[in-house]
Amino acid sequence: MAQQITANQEILDYVRATSLRDDQVLAGLRAETATVPAAQALQVMPEEGQLLALLVGLTGARAVLEIGTFTGYSTLCMARALPTDGRLVTCDIAAKWPDMGRPFWEKAGVADLIEVRVGDARATLAALREEGAEFDFVFVDADKSGYLHYYEESLPLLRPGGLIVVDNTLFFGRVADPAVTDIDTVSVRELNTRLHTDERVEICLLPMADGITLVRKK
Q1: Is 192 in a helix, a strand, or coil?
Q2: pTM of whole model > 0.90?
């Protein structure tokens, strides 16, 4: 039986050479993000951004919710996959991060599809529920200590058959080491356990990037 290969730099370069469809806007935002300290750990990989765009298109999503904007690379990828009357609500704790991405959203012609909500994501999710919002697609990539809460609060906002994508569910491999007990690792581990037994959804954890879990609401 074939096993998972190790994605060393040579393999990663090959994948990007034969699969990644890049352009100046995407590359420009990645270059801008690279100037931020710790950007490598926080930036969505370009092939993951391409996967998100593909999934938005495959699900026919018209309304997308993103929890955790950072500099808006994943925001850009998903917004470009929306129809012209689509909507993407993205939330972050600080305005300075989405402000970095906004010029690139404008260059791509999707800035009008994107609504940024700044503040605690818990408050944003509560407000969206009060507004009666409904989404076809949710991407979770924010503080790991809040992952379980973000999942539980975004699931009621998702239409039946909709998709939640959760990033960093392998969390640098720490989730597989029981000796690692910091709050972020424990929180991701708890979410993985909850998802495994949650009969409301179908799941698949992809060993790609830092772990990407696809969650389809029944």
Answers
A1: helix
A2: yes
